[in-house]
Amino acid sequence: MSSSNIKTPGVYIDEINEFPNSVVPVETAVPAFVGYTPTAEYEGESYYGKAHKISSFAEFQSIYMKADPAPPADPASKYSPEYYLLEQGQKPSKGDYLEINGTFYAVVPDPSTLYYLYNSIRLFYQNGGGDAYIVSVGAYGVPSRTAADVGAQVVNPHVQLADLQHGLELLKHEQEPTLYICPDATLLSVDDNGTLMQSMLLQAEELQTAMCLFDVIGGKAPDPVTYTQDIETFRNHTGSHGLMFGAAYYPFIGTTIMDNGDINYTNLFGGDIKQLGAILNPASAPNAAVEKIIGMIENPPNTGALTCSQLNAALLTASRTYAQIIKHVLADANMLPPSGGLAGVYTVNDNVNGVWHAAANTSIVGAASLSIRLNDTQQADLNVDAVSGKSINAIRFFNGLGILVWGARTLDGNSQDWRYISVRRTITLIEQSIRQAVRAYGSEPNDANTWEAVKSAISRFLIDIWKQGGLQGAKASDAFQVECGLGTTMTMEDILNGIMTVTVKVAVVRPAEFIVISFQQIMVDNVSR
User: How many domains does the chain have?
Assistant: First the structure.
């Protein structure tokens, strides 16, 4: 308050700003999911082709899932993959199968009906997920009514590279997402998936705000001998740019997301109950109860008709064969790419331990099995690749511990600076937090007072990070250095050109990836006996 403004006798209060500007940490685990949803509409507004932020699974359902009809009708189907049982002359060498009355049947999906985004979102929230961005690039396509080839890699013709790239492009306008995830990408061809991954890495490198979590094609049903070809193919298709902003996880995980209520007879043979009836009620082994239930499905009564869920429950009780079929179909439908669950793991890890703590040696909630159980030798080739350096993080089973995330590396495995995910994400946290804070000093005088204010704000922020365990060093001066001033980071020419340069050096904590314990035998002294 200026004394010249005081005209009237009395008491005046002048508030002085004692506390300088501070650096506020940005969010570190806000995933952006890109893929297909059954619908994308809420209160008359379309959300297709938009990056929309949600905070809960209920919010996701209200926008991207079909509304349930009024009771007593069954809830609307959220996701309806279709499967076929193909009779085989002998036991199939690849893919899932079951034996019914001495005949082998391969369990094969209709590729046009497979999508991963919905169940990946469920897995994300089951693992503690919070805020997330959803980019719905389109609705589900119509079923082809054709089964995939037995043992072949599934490619959904409705999943288009152009759609997913457009969804990725929309995220350029969003600064908050810190993880890019596209579960449906593994339903592309290998070449299209490679193009998408390279686009994701290039965008992440350009924005420097997000990391990409990748799934490996072939991870759903890997051959125990030739699975390394899938790994090599993945590495060959990720390109060479932006590798520090990518992390891959392998293999797919068998989850408990879907249950008997999510799969029924309408998901078999394209809903053709006659084909199912021929297997459940063959002339060689007739089942009167099954015949009656199928008759009710084919010709529902005018009044008192049972719902689909009731008829499904009746079939499960009447036929062990039907229960066995549903079990196999559920096992395939529940085998999911791990990226959605990992996004939830990252969220919990950041909230509990901090982004500088590696999101590894931890379980994935809902993971009940793995498509392949890797051992130490097999993981060694995934974790360290001498040629490309493109590390792939294994998800492994350990006796007494269960299924754990057992890797913490980026795709830039040959880089001493950026080989660890936690290091890359910690630096991103520091960079983006400081970037947001120093905007307050834009157009301020480029003089010593401003330089000291900037250094002070950044130093206080880094001290907090150091105290929480995010930086190494016995004292703060060992953990970081902040420099800003004439003769240190700027020349007089810089000042004349309106340039203020701040140099920040940090000693980031790195994970203890390899723990080596040395043992040595010693002789017992005779005197001490």
Answer: 3
How many whole angstroms from its chain centre is CA 333? 17
Q: Is 347 left (phi over 0), alpha (psi -120 to 50) or beta?
A: alpha
Encoded tokens for 92 = 């199939």
Query: Minimal CA–CA distance to 251: which of 278, 199, 296, 215?
Result: 215
Q: Which residue has 């288009």 as its token pair?
A: 160
Q: Which of 284, 390, 386, 405 is nearest to 344 (CA)?
A: 405
Q: Amino acid identity of 185?
A: A
d(CA 283, CA 501): 84
Neighbours of 438 (CB within 10 A): 19
Radius of gyration, CA atoms only, the chain: 29
Alpha helices (runs of H) in 103-241, residue ranges in sequence order: 117-126, 161-170, 190-207, 227-236
Domain that holds residue 407: 31-74+115-140+157-254+335-421
Last residue of a domain, one of 333, 356, 377: 333
Least Cα distance to 346 among 417, 405, 402, 390 occurs for 405
For the chain (529 residues), the mean pLDDT of every run of 10, in chain order, is 66 56 82 97 94 96 91 87 95 91 94 97 97 97 94 95 98 95 98 98 96 97 94 96 97 95 94 94 92 92 85 95 96 97 96 94 96 94 89 96 95 92 94 88 89 92 93 90 91 90 89 59 59
Q: Which long-range contacts (CB under 8 A, 24 or more apart) does 5-10 make?
A: none
Residues 235 and 124 grouped into a single domain: yes
Same domain, 214 and 351: yes
pTM given for the model: 0.91
Using alpha carbons only, what angle is made at residue 170 by residues 184 and 392, rounded to the nearest 5 degrees? Answer: 45
Are the CB atoms for 462 and 506 separated by under 8 Å? yes
Residues 471 and 529 in one domain: yes
Say whether both 136 and 171 belong to one domain: yes
Say if residues 374 and 381 touch (Cβ distance below 8 Å).
Answer: no
Q: Name the nearest CA neighbour of 39 among 68, 59, 70, 67.
A: 67
Give domain status of residue 402, yes or no. yes
**What amino acid occupies position 454?**
V
Residues 286 and 217 in one domain: no
Let me know how long the chain is.
Answer: 529
pLDDT in tens, 236-287: 999 999 999 999 999 999 999 999 889 999 999 999 999 999 999 998 889 9
Tell me how far apart the alpha carbons of residues 346 and 478 are, in angstroms, rounded to a whole number. Answer: 28
Examine the fold and report which residue of 271, 300, 333 is the final residue of a domain before the chain moves on: 333
The answer to whether residue 431 sits within a structural domain is no
Quick one: 364 and 486 in the same domain?
no
166 in the same domain as 103: no
Task: Supply angle C-alpha 458, 460, 466, rounded to 5.
Answer: 100
pLDDT tens digits, one per residue of 115-150: 999 999 999 999 999 999 999 999 999 999 999 999
Q: Are residues 278 and 354 in the same domain?
A: no
